[in-house]
């Protein structure tokens, strides 16, 4: 009697291996999507925190966006640098229709957006486009995607 694998056994083993490999591919893509979403939320949260920091410290605060996928939060003697995913592309839409790639968003000590700091920040990701809107009079920071407003 010969000791060998049958065709069905080989097919079953190959199919199990393919299933295990595909799980790894899908999970790495899901992890990347999760990180991008978290980075978008972090940018939104940091803009809101910069506004609150300006109010609590009674000093102007700034969020300066750089070209190297990073931004700096500055208020008085506090300075904190943050990085975000290179898959997020940021554009600043001004009221006159012009688009910028670098910009500083500033809040006054009353939490109001400083002159020229209001407008829309577009965050483009591979799957979605998010918009962070900074209201001109109140300084309120909103995040929304194609479906509507995420945060108030």
Automatic annotation (TrEMBL):
It comes from the Bacteria. Keywords: Membrane, Transmembrane, Transmembrane helix. GO terms for biological process: establishment of competence for transformation. InterPro entries: ComGD, N_methyl_site, Pilin-like. The keyword Isomerase does not apply. The chain crosses the membrane at residues 6-31. This is Prepilin-type N-terminal cleavage/methylation domain-containing protein.
């Amino acid at each position: 009697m010969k000791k060998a694998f049958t065709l069905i056994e080989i097919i079953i083993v190959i199919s199990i291996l393919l299933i295990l490999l595909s799980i790894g591919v899908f999970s790495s893509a899901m992890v990347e999507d999760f990180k991008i979403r978290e980075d978008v939320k972090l940018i939104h949260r940091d803009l809101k925190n910069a506004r609150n920091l300006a109010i609590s410290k009674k000093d102007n605060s700034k969020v300066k966006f750089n070209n190297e996928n990073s931004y700096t939060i500055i208020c008085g003697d506090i300075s904190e640098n943050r990085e975000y995913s290179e898959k997020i592309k940021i554009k600043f839409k001004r009221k006159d229709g012009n688009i910028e790639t670098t910009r500083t968003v500033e809040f006054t000590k009353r939490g109001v957006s400083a002159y020229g700091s209001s407008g829309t920040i577009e965050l483009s990701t591979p799957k979605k486009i998010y918009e962070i809107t900074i209201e001109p009079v109140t300084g309120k920071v909103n995040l929304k995607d194609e479906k509507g407003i995420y945060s108030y």
